[in-house]
Amino acid sequence: MPRILVLDGHSSAALAFVRSLGKAGYWVAVAVANGTFAAAVKSRYCKAAEVYPNPVEGVEPFVDSVRDIVNKHEIDLVIPITDSTVWPLSQAEELAGLVRIAVPSRAIVELVSDKYRTVCLAESLGVPIPKTLLVKSVDEIGGISDWNYPIVIKDRYSINWQQGKGVSGGVVFAYDSEDLYSKVKARLLTVDEVLLQSFSPGEGVGFSCFASGGKIFLPFQWRRLREKDPRGSGSSARMSVPLDEDIEQHSRTLILNAGFQGIAMVEYKRNRHNGALTLMEINGRPWGSMQLPIHAGIDYPQYLVRWCLDGILPPETLSYKEKITCRWLTADFIHLENLWEGRPDGWPEAYPDFFVNLLKVLLPWYPGLRYDHLSIDDPNPGIADLKKWFNSRFGSNKR
Fold this sequence. Notes:
Number of helices: 12
Order of helices and strands: EHEEHEHEHHEEEEEHEEEEHEEHHEHHEH
CATH architecture of the largest domain: 2-Layer Sandwich
CATH superfamily of the largest domain: ATP-grasp fold, B domain
Strand content: 25-35%
Number of strands: 18
Number of domains: 3
Mean pLDDT: 95
CATH topology of the largest domain: D-amino Acid Aminotransferase, Chain A, domain 1
Largest sheet: 7 strands, mixed
Oligomer: single chain
Radius of gyration: 21 Å
Shape: globular
């Protein structure tokens, strides 16, 4: 069987890949940035664990380390999971011919990594977007005088790569003009430009698929039930739902016009009052809620590996189980911690109730409920994840 190297072992998606590919009989190694906790290395399906230098601290040492790991274990395919490894490996010409890497082309990675270019492409295709302004100085803020608060401030890139190193991006909210000016000015001391976007209320909905040769395969959809940070972050719980015609059409249009190849995810906000959709982001790489489609019946990791190694395309459509809920337990605990802090001043929409969500989080099982990390046949990653969270809150080294 081919030998697979999964990077970013700290991520939930990496664990989903390791379990999926291991169950299919692949030999799987896991690698993680130095000093990072990685539940995936605890999996019974992880045959070898390796460490590499953090890519954001230096791309060249990271690529050299990946090359050494590939040679050491005779790896056939490398699967980077997060932006910190996808971008460097899409540029790593020195690995060409040595090993196959599950990344789109360099041009496509650069496109989907650029939030401003993605928004511009979406707007040109008729995909609904939030009001967006790219600013390079605080003097340009006047262009949004008619926007309502809060206003979203985000970096143009999830990771801003310069001179072989990366600066991780972030998202903050401004609740009035003084707050906006202060936060934009502070962020521009670190990066050259930021995006300002109008606030989009509503629930998060996601669409994922496999794209190849100008066609879309394996469409799948879900909606978010809870988020680590109720103001907006990765989900702690989400549910598979039927395909929505508008979401599917917008996503197909965006992914195909971007020229994307491989697995991709597009995320929207749906207004709870009028059902209007607004594009949030496109991920041209594995995403955090990867375990949900696997539980629902669409195993993206296996289809991706077969395509990368043997050129085998997946089925164009595949029925999946609806109303499957998948949750990340420790992220649900963080969700509760954030709710306990209370609704932020100036927050414009309803805020989740702590006690209602406490009951939901404490319910360990109901029909259709599955878990990201916890697994009966592979318990160690889930146990390690819970232990890490518990020690961070109640251990002797807690802050």
